[in-house]
Prior knowledge:
The chain is an alpha/beta fold. It folds into 2 domains: 2-177, 3-Layer(aba) Sandwich (Rossmann fold); 182-312, N-(1-d-carboxylethyl)-l-norvaline Dehydrogenase, domain 2 (Orthogonal Bundle). The protein is built from 14 helices and 12 strands. It has helices at residues 10-21, 84-91, 111-116, 157-169, 180-201, 204-207, 211-230, 239-246, 249-262, 264-271, 274-277, 279-296, 301-305, 307-312; strands spanning 2-6, 25-29, 39-45, 53-58, 62-63, 74-77, 99-102, 122-126, 130-133, 139-143, 146-150, 173-176. The strands form 2 sheets. The chain has an 8-stranded mixed beta sheet with strand order 5-2-1-6-7-8-11-12, sandwiched between helices. Strands 4-3-10-9 form a 4-stranded mixed beta sheet, sandwiched between helices. Strand 9 and strand 10 form a beta hairpin. Helix 7 (211-230) packs across helix 9 (249-262). It is globular, with a radius of gyration of 20 Å. It starts with a strand and ends in an 11-residue tail after the last helix.
Amino acid sequence: MKVLIVGRGVVGTIHGWALSKAGIDVTHVVRKDNLPSAATLDLLDLRPGYPKNTRATYLPKTVRQIGPADAFDLVIIATKHYQAAEAIRQYLPGAPRATFLLFTANWEGTAEIDRLLPRSSLLWGYASASGGPDDRGTLVVTVNPSVRFGMLEGSDPEKFNAVGKLFERAGFTLDIKANIVEWLWVHHAINAGGIGTALWAGGIAEATRSFKTLRLGTWATREALDVVAARGVYLEHYPDAKSVFNTPIWLAGVAITYFVRFTGKGRRLLGASHFANSPDEMKRYYFDVLNTGEKLGVAMPHLSALRERIECYPAVTTHLSKS
């Protein structure tokens, strides 16, 4: 299978590296000038059977344009979620017979994408790799062992299985979601509360220094999930959502603090993260959910209270005193 990846960010780079290491023909199409030809990777690789802590150099095959003669079988859209539809518009003419895998967040649903592609040519997924560049340009990445996939009505089961096997060949397990779009909305809402609180506090580390901030973040996340429920999603079907509502606030605060300060994944998140390098995208998660909640008339006193500082981020950061 011949694969094109749209994007040289964390998700595009790490999955391009993993797929190419498995012998798969991977090309990246790049839209920015002056990107380095090689990526240095500092990896915490949690896939079973792979070296856990390692460094690698990835020399991706890149192009600036594509055409039908390139005969790509799969196009992976690994962009920011609000750039996905435009990426399809841009590259569909050059890959008219390819399957497109949306490997991004989603908040607006499927309507715009459905206008661009038939469901039989479209798959939906979500990566779980995380990380970002450090101050020397090294990409510090945690490679989680699973990728999320799901089928929609009209999806092609044969294409779904073929793409799933491609990722399994690269050492990933498949976390199949019964309703991938609803799951993406739940994930988006949890991000809106957690990321929004970190933006409000001035950073991830700052958000864990005060129980008052952690408590605010928990209430904000619950309200963000109320927005998903107002869209008609039954949250009881989603363990992550149930955990947010059922875990006592003090215990949630302890768990978040422990993860950030004392686990390998958490410390790497503090050292180099997508959060630190993409503030506009992080703010978008928050405002996506907040704006929808306002339209639906959802009560969001805690989530709304974050707005003013987030609008100013990163120009203004204000930290709470310890409590």
